[in-house]
């Protein structure tokens, strides 16, 4: 009787934890201002042509004319008749603790958008002539002032890509639903506006493909250098594209930072531990300090934002006609980083900011993030720290500036002036809840969810754009030009 020799089980091969070539490929794309598939100067004309190619129309309507939405009996929540997509509910927030555990007590109520679905924000990457290019879409969103902006390859909620609207399929979504693990460049859950969303999260993705991708009229391949140039134009690159681009894994060439990574994380963990932010959903009908009219739900003092309704026609979308509520801010926002060199290394001043809709108390935010009009009635001592420094900065100190739209699928005419302001005299020991961090440290944190808020991620993408334009200036750590 012969015995069969059973070979030992195969030992899985290990692989490098990082792709050693990726940082160089990213740097080459960022340094390439002339793409192989499209010229940067032609993008504006292409967007104008796509606007002419489709019917786009957004009209404000009274709530009574909403056909697919209704105010739910009892709660007063604004809900879709399918039970999908999102709802407008109430939120009651109690905040206490402060940076030393003894800070002021604040309490407020407000309407809030609740969208528990995790959406996909995905950009497809591919090499052309040895340079990584990224597939950007000319996408219409009803809340954008100019309607059409550069967006990710795929920008869709689960309700959209599972076709709850019974419309057309989301193009190219399969690249992100079942990505090849060897082709994933970025895949991280990130938050959205905690002031207007209740615990909203999207999956930010970049996936590289070696296969053929259909040539579609509403899509163009661009390098990171081209996108950086376009980020200097007002209302050109949408918020969803900016948050994905902030997660691009650039290589770290800085010699160090004021604080070690462990020190920065310890400080941030302490901020989260000390701050107590309790947010609970309440019926929209019970929200105090807000009033509902025929065409808007708004604050009694006319500040902050309002909830309105629109009817939309869009020939390029999966559904060509729909209606929906939108959140409309009152006034132009400001989001700014103060930046200064410390030991020859650029640093930005970040703020551990609490927002009622965050999943976990605080996230790192810009130095200044507010709508100045909401504070115009207050004495200077009660205005946000550094707001006047930013607003009064001379042009010689402004390293980046553009007016950019926020998420146009849920917000109407939500625009902020994004700035990077050099402030060499800013204190090295800032007020409580503020800290200096190197941009490379912030880039590392974007590999993990819920560290940087969406406004800080936009500014990080803008910092990368400013660095690409300056080629060795302040933001690269090379001193003044």
From TrEMBL:
Membrane-crossing segments per the record: none
Pfam families: Hexose_dehydrat (PF03559)
Residue ranges of every copy of the dTDP-4-dehydro-6-deoxy-alpha-D-glucopyranose 2,3-dehydratase domain listed in the record: 41-248, 262-463
Designated name of the protein: NDP-hexose 2,3-dehydratase
Organism expressing this protein natively: Streptomyces spongiicola
